[in-house]
Specification:
single chain
Amino acid sequence: GVAQWLRLQMHDSITYENHPSTKTDASTWQTCLYRFAEPLDVTPGQTVVVRAAHNRSAVWFACEALE
């Protein structure tokens, strides 16, 4: 799947980041994990081509190919 990790520079002194190793209060900006329908057997150095879509309400990810 895909882990969504955001870092937003809102202003010179204001940054928001949902780093997966930093514990933060619950919000809608927590790190999200999107799992593929089937597990992928991937080796180090192999490229995974991912298709992403967003409709202003939700995000979707799908594995297109392994290269």
